[in-house]
Amino acid sequence: MSILVRAFAWLLAAAVTFATLGPPGLRPHSDLGQDGEHALAFILVGLAFGLAYRQRRLAVAVVSVILIGVLELMQFWAPGRHARLEDFLVDAGTACIGFALAAVADWVMTRFRTSSALTS
Q1: Are 46 and 93 in contact (CB under 8 A)?
Q2: What are the structural domain ranges in the chain?
């Protein structure tokens, strides 16, 4: 199961990288607006990587924030793209929220398993 979650996390990261650095016309658009799209994408990235790498969640979160910054800076060299501090803050912040949600999900599942084991 963890292999599937890790594969999904990396595919999602690749899709977000393409959407960030690829041609603007190929980037998916929604009614959420630019910040909403960024928030949704990166909260899913944080959640996916938080679930995929449970044992090293904090280290993966730190590396993720650094790589999100690198990804934002790479937009300086991508035609038609622009790097903005606001985008970095939204992306990194929502990725961290995704990591926190993964930690909460783990905590809830652990409590559920523990209480189920005690009642059996």
Answers
A1: no
A2: 2-119
Q: How far apart are CA 30 and CA 6, in angstroms?
A: 26
Q: What angle do CA 67, 95, 112 make, to 5 degrees?
A: 130
Q: Are 11 and 67 in contact (CB under 8 A)?
A: no
Q: With cut-offs at 50, 70 and 90, classify the pLDDT of residue 36.
A: confident
**pTM of the prediction?**
0.86
Q: Summarize pLDDT for 48-97 with one digit per residue, the tens.
A: 999 999 999 999 999 999 999 999 999 998 888 888 999 999 999 999 99
Let me know the angle formed at the C-alpha of 116 by 114 and 119, rounded to the nearest 5 degrees: 110
H/E run at residue 31: none
Cβ-based burial of 103 (10 A; exposed 0-12, middle 13-18, buried ≥19): middle
Cα separation, 100 vs 30, whole angstroms: 25
In terms of Cβ atoms closer than 10 Å to its own Cβ (0-12, 13-18, 19+), residue 1 is exposed
